[in-house]
Amino acid sequence: MLFLPAAHLTAAGLAANNRPMQRIFSGIQPSGIPTLGNYLGAIRNWVALQDDHDCIWCVVDLHAITQFQEPALLATATREMAATLIACGIDPVRHVLFLQSRVRAHTQLAWIFNCVARLGWLNRMTQFKDKAGENTENVSAGLYVYPNLMAADIHAYHATRVPVGDDQKQHLELANDIAQKFNHDFGVEFFPRIEPLILGPAARVMSLRDGSRKMSKSDASDQSRINLNDDADTISLKIRRAKTDPQPLPSEAEGLVGRPEARNLVGIYAALSDTDHAGVLRQFGGQGFGAFKQALADLVVAKLAPIAAETTRLLADPASLDAILHRGTERAAAIADPIVAEAERLVGFLSP
Ligand code: TRP
Q1: Separation of alpha carbons 92 and 324, rounded Å
Q2: Taking 60 as the threshold, does the pLDDT of residue 234 lie above it?
Q3: Minimum CA distance residue for ligand 1 atom 9
Q4: Which of 81, 106, 153 is the pocket-test mutation for ligand 1 (most atoms within 8 Å of CB)?
Q5: Residue 231 is part of a domain; what is its CATH number?
Q6: Residues 240, 184 within the same domain
Q7: Which residue owns the Cα nearest ligand 1 atom 10?
């Protein structure tokens, strides 16, 4: 039997079938204004999951400082990320949106997990190896235990479903290993198994300059990405200049094989118009890129303009935004604190 504190059940609410809704937790780093890639790859899926889950959305500022952040920039980027999430449809009233560093339960449980996870497990994490590169002696200890904090994020809420990109799959396996070892070591069934909801490569948006690389905030060229706050002229220019090949668009999806740039633009059009590659090619197959790029630019502008406007409105009033996040913090702590207090009791800590 799973141990579920009463608060967990009442906070979770009921799904249409009258069973408690599954709880989702996911986190996103405060990297400023997200790109169209973040939107189509993650945020838009999060918004859809809100219909039939009890959701906890977290801006993971503790994870951000595993690599040095300029303090003033971190604060700005954190507000920008929170505002953009709300503008995209993350609902801070029906669900919970908060900043990781403001809820102490995360670091409290992370310490316990630092003592449960084995060095050998962490040594296998490919993301650490990618981020540390040659520099393994000089990265922060925080970067090394990053996955333990991520496990704590999820387990502090007894969340059972976690939507992430496939680059995070290994971290979720580790989170399950940690939960299993904790349960085993302390002879309980306290932390539930988590089920990754892997957001597939279909939603992956590639660079506008190189169809083989992911659209990324860290790309040196701003022309490679569309930021969610780009204005209409900037978006049109970036799409007009996007790399393509000299062939017209194919009439069938198979014709996109080996044409990564064409595939990417068709994929963006498909995602924003809720169809698939074939649906887009029925309309534009056989045509050159000129007309298609114009239609794509119009579509991207139409979809992003309301998000940009709402983000700007929210950022113009930081006090109100901070108040929304403060309420999120209180509600997150109300769920996580009793769960982490119980974990501490199981470990053998005396109650205060
Ligand atoms: N590591 C995740 C990423 O970079 C962000 C993250 C932190 C997260 N804590 C989490 C995702 C908990 C899911 C659940 O994408």
Answers
A1: 7
A2: yes
A3: 150
A4: 153
A5: 1.10.240.10
A6: no
A7: 27
